[in-house]
Design goal:
Helices cover 52% and strands 13% of the residues. It is an alpha/beta fold. The protein has 4 domains: 131 residues, Response regulator (Rossmann fold); 135 residues, Alpha-Beta Plaits, CATH 3.30.70; 92 residues, no CATH class; 111 residues, Arc Repressor Mutant, subunit A (Orthogonal Bundle). Keywords: Cytoplasm, DNA-binding, Phosphoprotein, Transcription, Transcription regulation, Two-component regulatory system.
Amino acid sequence: MNKDMISIMIVDDEPIFIEEIKRLYDFEANGFDLVSEASNGKDALEIFDRYKPQIVISDIDMPIMDGITLGKIIRSKNIRTELLYLTVYDETEYIKSALRLSASDYILKFELSEQILEDKMYKLKQQILQRKKTEASLLQNLVLTMYQNNIPGKIDGIPLVDENIIHQKFLFLVLELIQPLALITATHVNYNNEIGLVTDFIKKVNSNNNLFYMGNSRYLLPFDPPKSLSEQKYFNILSTITNNLKQYLETYHIKYALYILPKPTDLMEFQKIYYSNTHIFDIKYFVEDVKIFSFSQHYLKGMDKTIQASLDEKASVLKKSIESKDIDKIYSYHNDIMGELKKTRNVKTLIGYFQSFYYYLENLSHQFAFDIPVPGNCYHIDDVSIWLLKTILNITNELGCLHIDCLSNTIQITIAYINRNFSKTDMTIDVIAEQTYLSAGRLNKLFKSETGITIYKYLKETRLNNAKHLLSTTTLPVYEISEKCGYSSSQYFSQVFYETFNMTPNTYRKSK
């Protein structure tokens, strides 16, 4: 992707129409980088986070996921991508529904021409360039505003701002109130009450300082530095302040991260450092217990291409392991993938992988007529890992990796009942057969003819797979796990486990 060009993606289920757009308009010659194409909204989302195109040209009426839904999801991520819709419908309400999503514009397909494309693209380009210019001066204007109340002179009630103040040097502290990862939809946590508490604390530390909002749940705190100290001493000054603030924040259970610049810097230089190091704000999602980061330290930028190739390969094997019900490989490849993602320290890569896998699991679950939950608040890669593994195992257990859409209603009912009730110690074939109004013998014969295994074997595998999951992900004692998996005797459970896996439950736990 060329950073000097405006990135763009085209989404249309008619390849010939995409080719027509490219024929009519020379994107590269006009400063646009066509980074990707997709044939429906779902495919577009899977690659969206990899490129974060600044413009998406999308058909409205598409199979699998239409353009309106695609636009809603893009907007839910709080991403300021410009949306240009294509449609064959010249209907006011239909167009209004698109524009309510903050779509930048639309084109009627039957009116498409070289001139219309040129006009629309020029308009979008100017909007993006103007926004970039505005953002470049945002911090400067914000900080100038900070000092208005401290400037003595006023004309007609308007404070006089001495622009020389932008050349004064400060120590800078950025407080970020952490928001959950926007895995599928953005979830915003309201910290209004907490900010009041933090502001009160800052005033106690230094009555001359206040917090100033920077956007993205971040607040800026500049400190007047003592003169002519070493960087280490400046670091110690900020460390004392941040450690006190850290204790205060944790008293109120506030999720936060602190970022410091431990050398006196003027506002313009801080602006450059801030915007050239935005990757630093990803790191909190990948490290344990670290709450304070320094803009002066080196943090990993970008990602080795070999890591992406490795992720793609392992994800492919993991999907095959899910479909073949290979629990050991599921654990192994899931852990490997999460380990690789931790190395990247890249939120876009993490979310891109998650969304790709989420839609794969969603599609798999829909084949068997049940839904997977939308992920809850995830503040760390470990939260994502736990949710994914739990969902994968739930699907594996629910489906038993049987081609359930090819099974009779009676066998589908039987499988669903076992999956919901395997933890009951009084579960017998007779009890299961009562749900289908067939005799135990007839049901068992039908079950084996359709699935290739007996009801007893399916029940046993379901219980033992859940036991392996609990042994790997919890510290519950073996006797509690045996009870949760339908065994009234932990001794009998251990015996069955050993006969099946050639190791005791405790040995299996240690191997994980």
